[in-house]
């Protein structure tokens, strides 16, 4: 197992998933539910996210090949998509006050484990893009296992954050959550630019 690959995949997935920011969303959406229900929702959301990410890590490369999409082209598209995700994080689209707005897309809370927790927070377009890029870049099964192990670790951290969302909310407060999410957004924006740069270099054979 390559420590560098593990660290790269772990940091990338951690920044995209943003467990602390997701915990803030979870706390805002489940504050009126009992503890047992909150835990069931958290587990269901993480399991669904794990299934989605594992599926895309397996079918990503065959799907790209079937659609005649090169990896450099996917890197460029993925970089743009990750930048949009980063922009939304920096601008506070997932802040609790936005979630509770009457205009919020999250006002339907019939199954919040699926939406918005599993999709788009834990396994949204940004996460899917990142996992496909790492999986398709894996040279062998050891590299693939390293990427999936890193992803699993991030999801376990996210589950722990959901379990202790109330405690984290009291510790960080709205201001602390906002700061953490925006810092993650800045890191993700930088990462997206790197994906774009790598993609363009490969597409146009720039030395």
Task: Please describe what this structure looks like.
- This protein is mainly alpha-helical.
- The protein has a single domain, classed as Growth Hormone, Chain: A (Up-down Bundle).
- It starts with a helix and ends with a helix.
- The relative contact order is 0.23.
- About 2% of the residues have low confidence.
- It is found in: Cell inner membrane; Cell membrane.
- Belongs to the UPF0056 (MarC) family.
Q: Main attributes?
A:
Growth Hormone, Chain: A; mainly alpha; 207 residues; 9 helices
Write a brief caption for the model.
By secondary structure, the chain is mostly helical. The chain has helices at residues 3-17, 19-30, 35-66, 71-91, 96-99, 113-122, 125-137, 141-163, 165-203. Keywords: Cell membrane, Membrane, Transmembrane, Transmembrane helix.
What's the story with the biggest beta sheet?
Answer: none
**Main CATH class:** Mainly Alpha
Radius of gyration: 17 Å
Question: Might you state the CATH topology name?
Answer: Growth Hormone, Chain: A
């Amino acid at each position: 197992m390559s420590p560098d690959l593990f660290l790269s995949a772990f940091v990338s997935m951690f920044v995209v998933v943003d467990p602390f920011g997701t915990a803030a969303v979870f706390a805002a959406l489940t504050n009126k539910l009992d503890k047992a229900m909150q835990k069931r929702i958290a587990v269901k959301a993480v399991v669904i996210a794990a299934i989605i990410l594992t599926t895309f890590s397996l079918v990503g490369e065959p799907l790209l090949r079937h659609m005649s999409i090169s990896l450099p082209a996917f890197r460029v598209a993925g970089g743009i998509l990750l930048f949009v995700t980063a922009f939304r994080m920096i601008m506070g689209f997932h802040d609790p006050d936005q979630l509770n707005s009457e205009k919020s897309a999250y006002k339907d809370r019939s199954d919040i484990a699926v939406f918005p927790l599993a999709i788009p927070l834990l396994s949204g377009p940004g996460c899917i893009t990142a996992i496909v890029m790492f999986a398709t870049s894996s040279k062998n099964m050891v590299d693939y296992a390293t990427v999936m192990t890193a992803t699993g670790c991030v999801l376990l951290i996210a589950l722990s954050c959901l379990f202790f969302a109330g405690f984290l909310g009291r510790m960080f407060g709205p201001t602390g959550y906002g700061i953490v999410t925006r810092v993650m957004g800045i890191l993700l924006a930088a990462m997206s630019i790197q994906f774009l740069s790598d993609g363009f270099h490969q597409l146009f054979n720039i030395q």
